[in-house]
Amino acid sequence: MTGARPFVFPSVKHTDWDTCIILGMNIFKAFEKKLETLFEGVFLRAFKSGVHPVELGKKLVREIEGNKTISTTKVYVPNRYWVGLSRKDYSRFESYQAALATELENLLLTYIREKGYAVLDRPRIRMVEEEQLHEGEFWIESRMEGEAPRAKKAAAEKGVARTGARSKGQASLELMDSGEIPPVFELENKTIQIGRSGQDNDIVLPDPNVSRVHVRIYLKGNSYFIEDLNSTNGTVVNEEGIQVHELKDNDVIRLGGTRLLFREG
Question: d(Cα 85, Cα 91) in Å, to the nearest integer?
Fold first, then answer.
């Protein structure tokens, strides 16, 4: 991202924004507790210096408060966020980036619901490395991507993998963290297999932490299920390890360091 504005961490005077943070303090405590549970304390101890995940969460919430769009009936907030980190901080986050992004997005969703704001779809957070930043500095940029809900034109082309909007009534998987226009894989009421091997899978993920054949997604009754196929690193849905799981709209699937968003038809 260009035109970034860095945030540094010196103490600041009490402001109206601090009052907003105090009102939402419980969500930050719950966020930190969740990170401690996920990473057994190792992750947070690694951030005694430099950027701390909870500080990122607070600044992301501040970004929401500073970028609201007021319509006649609702207050809309951004759904796309970029976080610029110094090389040192980025390297600390790198191994946990997918899991941390999911938890930060969940934090934003909780805050948005508590405040009664509207968001066009699940917030997405992407971390980028910025060489000009020093350890402990970071910037955040955001925007609202898409239009307020209304009838949308169905995509004309047919196929498993596309970019952009989904066809109406069709369940799909969206590849998160992949750039401006994420690929969308329509499930088309059939069983699909996902993994690293190009010969054995319907969706191929070139991620070294994804197994050759990692998961299967299949339709049973009116619901889609995901099943781990004895993968090496396991399958995670909404940051909970699963063997077989019934998918719900906006579930975040993590295979290795790759995230997929399930969308119901």
Answer: 9
Token pair recorded at residue 145: 């991507």
What pLDDT, on the 0 to 100 scale, is given for residue 44? 58
Q: Quick one: DSSP state of residue 79?
A: -
pLDDT per residue as tens digits for the range 184-214: 999 987 899 999 998 889 999 999 999 999 9
Show the tokens assigned to 225.
């299920």
Neighbours of 63 (CB within 10 A): 18
Taken as a whole, the chain contains a residue count of: 265
Give residue 209's pLDDT: 93
Band (261; pLDDT cuts 50, 70, 90): very high
Q: CA-based diameter of the chain, in Å? A: 59
Q: How far apart are CA 179 and CA 223, in angstroms?
A: 29
Q: Residue 65 is inside which H or E element, if any?
A: helix 53-66
Amino acid at 139: W
Per DSSP, the residues of 97-141 read: HHHHHHHHHHHHHHHHHHHT-B-SS--EEEEEE-TTSPTT-EEEE
Count of helix runs (H) and strand runs (E) in the chain: 6, 18
